[in-house]
Amino acid sequence: MAVGSRLQGRRRAGGGAAVKCPCGLNADYAACCGRFHRGDATAPTAERLMRSRYSAFAVGDAAYLARTWHPSTRPADVGVDPGTRWTGLEILAKTGGSALDTEGTVRFRAHYTEGGEEGAMEENSRFVVIDNAWVYVSAL
Prior knowledge:
about 140 residues, alpha+beta, two-stranded antiparallel ribbon, 3 helices
């Protein structure tokens, strides 16, 4: 599935599609997490990386998930389940993870629908900086 094909948006004046970013910030996908997914920029904080990874799950971008996963903990197959529809993200807490830090944690709750059933998963994720870029290490 093409990146972004699972997103639906409203129409802007002039006919261009404006697609709200799945990460929960009040921004269009292309200008928000889309720029990280395309490789135009890297996430400046652990929270922004976490949000962009959630968005990657939502749009089916397994390549971005692999790129932003610590090499020592990255699975051989970073699969994205097309049967899961990610429906919302809540940031519950964070420690460190600023542009001046080299590690941090983000605790979040991700809502989804799968097989017609609604659910949520909660995780406290650890992030570190490698080569000037934030990467996901593991759940704590």
